[in-house]
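User: quick one
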Amino acid sequence: MTAMHGLSAFPITPTDDDGNPIASELAGLIDRLDRAGVDSIGILGSTGGYAYLTPDQRMRAADIALDAAQVPVIVGVGALRSDVSARLARHAADAGAAGLLLAPMSYTPLTEDEVFGHFQTVAGASDLPICIYNNPSTTHFTFSPALLARLATLPQVTAVKMPLPADGDFAGQIAGLRADLPQGFAIGYSGDWGCADALLAGADAWFSVAAGLWPEQSLMLARAAMAGDRALTAEWQDRFQPLWDLFMAHGSLRVVFAAARIMGLTTALPPRPLLPLSHDLTPHIKAAITALEG
Amino acid sequence: MTAMHGLSAFPITPTDDDGNPIASELAGLIDRLDRAGVDSIGILGSTGGYAYLTPDQRMRAADIALDAAQVPVIVGVGALRSDVSARLARHAADAGAAGLLLAPMSYTPLTEDEVFGHFQTVAGASDLPICIYNNPSTTHFTFSPALLARLATLPQVTAVKMPLPADGDFAGQIAGLRADLPQGFAIGYSGDWGCADALLAGADAWFSVAAGLWPEQSLMLARAAMAGDRALTAEWQDRFQPLWDLFMAHGSLRVVFAAARIMGLTTALPPRPLLPLSHDLTPHIKAAITALEG
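Assistant: Done. Structure below.
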C-alpha cells in the first residue's frame, strides 16, 4: 500500500479573515486524524481551500500539518500558474510530504497538451508521487482516458482521484481505467456519498471530506467496503446519509466548516465570497453529527 | 455615453516569466489604443491575464496603463477572494480608473447570494461604476436574469458584459434584459465574432479582444454596426473573418499573443500552463493580419 491507497482524510484549513492559517486549530484537526490512524491526510485539497490562499499561506499550512502528522501527508499543489505549482511542490518535498495532489485549475480553458506540460513541470520539481486531481466541477477541466494514460507515463504520476461516474458504473469505469493505466496505479474517488460503492467495486482509495472531521467513522465505512462486507457497508452508509444529504444540497466545504464550528474545532469561516451556512441549518447539521457519533 | 458604452479595447498584459508586467510593452500597447481613439480601454480582463497575476502585479499593470492612457480605462478586479477584489478596486479608484470590470471567478461553485455579496463588497470599496462580467466559460458561474436585476439595484453596477447567446437571438436577449434592468444600464457583449451582430441589434458596447491589437479596424466595424449600416458591417466582418476563425479554433488569448509577437509589439508569451501557438499556425495568423491591415 502506498500513500495513495486507502482512506485519505481531507481537513479544512482554518484561517483568519486574510487567509492566514490558524496554527493551533489546523494542528488540532491534523492530530485528530493522526490519532484515528487514517491511511493518509490530504491537506490543501478543495476542502482545504487551497484555491483561496496565497503561496506563502499554503506553505505555512503545509509546515503546520507536516509538523503535526505522523501518518503520510499528501499536499495539494494546484495553481493557475505552472511555476507556482512547481514552487509549492518543491516546498512540500523539502517539508516532508509523502505525495502531491495536482489539480489542473483553469481560467482560460486548457488544452490537453497544456495540462500535460503542467504535470511535467510539477513532476520535474520533486521526486514525490503525484495524484491527478480529476474534478471538473472545480477545475473545469475534463481528463480524457487518453490523457490519463499519457500522464501515467510520467514516473511520478502514480494515482488519480476520480469524480463519481455519472452513470454509477464504478466497476465498468475502474476496469476501463485499469486497462489503460500501469499496474499498481492507484484509482481513488471523491464525492463522499458514492465512495463506499467505489471501494466495493475495487477502487484503491477514498479521498474523503467526511474523514477530515469523522476519521473513525469513515475508517469503519472504508474498511467495511474494502473488505467487501456489503451489509456492514450499508449500515454505515445509513449513519452517514444525513451528512451526505447535506453535502449534496449545500456543498461539502460549507457543511464541514459549519460542523467543525459546532464541534468546537475551529472558529474560522469559509473564505469570502463563500458564505457560512444559514443558522436555520444548524439543527440538521447537529442531527447529522449525532447520527454519526451516536 | 459612459465609459461602459461603445468600443472597449482589451489588450494583453505583456509579462516576464514570473508574471511581472513589462512596462514599456504594456505602455506601448495602451498608447496605440489611445491614439486610435477607442471609447475605452479594458485592462486586466481575461485577455489581460488577470487570473494569472498576483495582486501586486495587477496593481503595477493598472498603474502603467493609467499613466499611459488618455481615454477612460476600465480595470478588471475579479479574484477568487472578495477581499482581494475590494483591494484592487480601491487601488484602481485611487489610480484614476473610469470603471471596474468584475468577474465572479469561482473554484467552489458559488451560490447567487455569494455572488451578490461579492459584488456588494466590491461596490463598497470605491465609487467607480462596475460592469458585471458574465462569461461562464472562464468564471464557471452563470448569471440568472433575476440575479442581474438584483445586482443592478446596487447603484454602482451600471453595465453587463454578456457572452454571445447560444441561439444567436441578440434582439430577443437584449429586449429581455432591458425589461429587467434600469434605464441607461449598458448591455455589452464579448465573443468578438458575434459582436457586430450584437451592435446591429442595439447592444450598447463591444468588449473586444481584437480591438486590443487592431483598434482602427475594430472601430470601423463597431461604428458601421452601431450606425445600422449592414452592408459596411458585412464588409468589415469579411475582413475580420480569418481572425474570427482563429479565435474560435484556438482561443482568442493565444491568438493575440502570437499576433502581437509577429507584429513586434511584445516579446512576452502567455503564462504557463498556457502554451504559445504552434509555429505551423504562423502563416494563418499572418494572413489574418494582412486581411485586416491590407
